[in-house]
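Q: Could you predict the 3D structure of diguanylate cyclase?
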Amino acid sequence: MPGYLDTAKRWWRRTRRQNKVVQAEAALETLRRFRTISPLLLLINLVFILSFWQFGYDVRAGFLAPHTLAIIQIHSVMALCNLLLGTLSHYLCRHSAALPAKPLYTRLLQLLICLSYLLFAVSIAVADQLVTTSLTPFVLICLLVAMLSLMPPGSSIALFSLTYLIYFYAIASTQDQAEILFRLRGNGRDVLLMCAVVSSIVWRQYVVAILLKREILRAHQTLARKQSELEFLAMHDPLTDLYNRREFMRLAEMELARARRFPTDSNLIVLDLDHFKRINDEYGHPQGDLVLKKIAHVLISSMRETDVVARLGGEEFVILLPKTGQADAIAVAEKIRLRIAAESCQDGEKSLPLSASFGVSGLQVGQTATLEDLYLAADRALYRAKQTGRNCVHYAAPGLVASPAPLSLRGHAGDS
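A: Sure. Here are the predicted structure tokens for diguanylate cyclase:
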């Protein structure tokens, strides 16, 4: 027995939590529904008013006159309610995001709409007792409220119970035959009980649908985020967030094709950190990774948005400079060289200066070469920079032997 009680308690807590999560959204959805059908309901009120007004004063009607007058009055009041409540619903639906107390306003208006229609149903049932014992309009209106209003079971039970209490005493004002009154009260009780059950079923279906919709939305968002991450990893180096070799090759090919269509100079810079193995050996690979991230930051902060920066692998990086001449490309490489030389690898009291060697190659307007030709030339220039003491910039045209950059742009050779 305790096991069943614990299960029931967990179910009850879970259901209350779910109801609370969707209650504000459900109230707003009720207002949207009412906003949609309120013009139709207003039209129905006007049709009843005109119809009963046209035939209500026929001398042959006799005893129908009081009933007709009551129907006209009830529908007139309800028409005004439809107009007012429909306008308020439209306003809240359009400005719900700007209202600080939106959940409170929407729930209050939802309850007011439901109560208005239930009182309308009671009034019609009471007026109809002047000519018939039928409760058909009462049943239809109550069912309409039960199916269109999204209320938690507690609220719907309370509202339909209040409606029955009003109905119980109001129906006696126009029906004085005890047997018929007893039957009407019993039928009214059954109708409102059925409506409470229908309302609870509709509510539960809505809760399940909304929670499932949110779960699907979260799954889609997670999937989209994972897909975005995979796309990023497919194009970028995971350590430095620079473009990887494959993406660089794709972008560089596109840029060189553009340079051939609209003739401009393009240059390629290849750089390699000096003595990087020593950093890994003396300071460890984690410190080496920090150095690579630091170099990546230097490169990104030194480049234009149109430049393409990538890590080819290990300690080797590459930069494509669109619309850049040879002299400007060498100047950019020298600027980066000086910025890297100003950095150091720190580990406690130990400090190791950083430096890099640069190879530059480029295409002038009218020259033809492939990306591979440019890269091979820049790599030859880089090799020459390593051979002549490191921490310097060398240039090589595609297909030519590497030559040093102008002396004013060369760094001091050293074993660092």
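Q: Anything worth pointing out?
A: The beta strands are 266-273, 308-313, 316-322, 344-347, 350-353, 356-363, 393-395, 403-404.
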